[in-house]
Amino acid sequence: MSDTDQGFETLLEYLYQSHGFDFTGYKRSTLMRRVHKRVDELHLDGYESYLDYLQVHPEEFGVLFDTILINVTAFFRDLPAWENLQSSVIPQILAAHDGDDLIRVWSAGCASGEEAYTLAMYFCEAMGTEEFRRRVKIYATDVDEDALQRARIGSYQVRDLQPVPDELRAKYFEVTGQTASFRSDLRRSVIFGRHDLVQDAPISRLDLLVSRNTLMYFTAETQKRILLRLHYALNDSGFLFLGRAEMLLTHSNLFAPLDLRHRVFTKVARASVRDRFLPVADRIPDLETTHDREGRLRELALDTAQVAQLVLDARGTVILINQPSRTLLGLTRKDVGRRLQDLELSYRPLELRSRLEQAQKERHAVVVRDVERHLEQGRVQHLEVVITPLYEADGPYLGATVAFLDITELQAMRSEVQQGRQDLETAHEELQSTVEELETMNEELQSTVEELETTNEELQSANEELETMNEELQSTNGELQTINIEMRERTVELDRLNAFMESVLTSLRAAVVVLDTELRVQIWNGRAEDLWGLRSDEVVGRSLVSLDFGLPVDQLVGALRRCVSGEADGDERVVVALNRRGRTVDCRVTLSPLMEHGVRRGVVVLMEDAAAAD
Description:
Layout: H1 3-19, H2 28-41, H3 47-56, H4 60-68, H5 79-95, E1 103-108, H6 114-127, H7 129-135, E2 136-142, H8 145-153, E3 155-157, H9 166-172, E4 173-176, E5 179-182, H10 184-187, E6 190-194, E7 206-211, H11 220-233, E8 234-242, E9 255-259, E10 264-267, H12 273-277, H13 280-283, H14 292-303, E11 308-313, E12 318-321, H15 323-329, H16 352-362, E13 366-374, E14 380-391, E15 397-406, H17 408-427, H18 429-507, E16 511-516, E17 521-524, H19 526-532, H20 536-539, H21 557-565, E18 571-578, E19 584-596, E20 599-609, H22 610-613
Parallel strand pairs: 1-2, 1-7, 2-6, 7-8
Antiparallel strand pairs: 3-5, 4-5, 8-10, 9-10, 11-12, 11-15, 13-14, 14-15, 16-17, 16-20, 18-19, 19-20
Helix pairs in contact: 1-3, 5-6, 6-7
């Protein structure tokens, strides 16, 4: 690993330790490009310097977060795909539900909310606003709190609504000036919240899950974990709607394509042990409200189980002990209600407390295989112990189950099988050569298949990378357009102010000349041109002292310099001068300092014919 890679990994570890956000599942190339952009903006020389900057400026984390998470979204983005959703998918969802069934939709990675409100408009069009408010819940989530705050308000610039058809814009938005707000009565059916697809439990029982161009930012391994969560979140009849850069070709065991062109997939039903136990945490709160008869039924079911099992609460108190546990481990009903640490079982035949802490911390089952338990008369019993943590759906730790499987006979059978294998190996030595040849051919075929799969994955990754770069370019283009608009507005304002100042100077009866601190001419108004016969373009930028015209400048130089230096606050005097017609005039000259934020920036010189002024 290079020093640059090591510095980047150290930075990611610091972000996880200090703010709890794990970026390790994101694609390294995209992450490094986005972070390097921020490092360049701060003119730092590497990731180590940026880490020091973060430690000194904690507010920088919010800026970095916005830089990494590219919030590129729009109403009806990729319109043909949305039209297919409206014409094909939504009617199937409505047809599968009775009139009172609740319809649940999840927009994952919703950014500033445009896609969530697009879904709301389509469902309103399909079922009417009254039915929508009564039956539809749209959950919109993202990891960017700032983007979620904008989404909750539901207010957008009018130019952002250009992709929205005119009839939908008039029906669902209230326009005030340059701002358009989504209807507040419908906005209550769209629920926004922070959710991390990598770390947080998924929203369940969904009819439609929309995650468009979100998965492409993650590594292949992280994508697989997220897709397992999305698979669990959907109902068996639910639909998954992805972005055009996401194919799911390598995950056909979870989802089947309904419309591959528009990235619509259906859930492939699974019945594994893991799938059956995943919703356990969601069912635990119901125990508090079930009937006593149902509670007794559960105890009897636990007692009649073939596996020795006990249940602990979050404090380590024994809640349930089934009959196989009492028989196998010598426990009694009196042990119910005691702390695990007070029982011999907590440390014999193995240390349970440390395994419980491990299961709670890692949030998954801990399996300890081939635990030896020494009995009387020198007998040895072999056990397999499974510690499974129990969590609420929203995260709290409720307790754990500890199961003891007696595998003594299995171990004996394994020994017998091992002996049988050795006998079979001796008997089949003559066949080994043929088997090896077949294996060699199989390996060659497997190698070819793997090469093809690798090529396919590389093409997929390259496609996702190009899509990511396109999103970044769109984001940068949006920023440049906003800056361009602001520059045009400022230019118009500056032109207006210049015209106004020119109008004021032209309207004055006196000749006005503005000098800088070096007595160079900055402004020479029209009255000065009439009085002295010199045009503005002939004198601007030149020193007043070097100009050859009828005013005796040498008599004014001392006063001008005192006014610039601050030795005097002004001066007024009458000098004899020659105007542009060569006539002698008594010229009244008034000197005033040019002030800017309390600092002298030059001198304002007013000149007028004293006789005409009187």
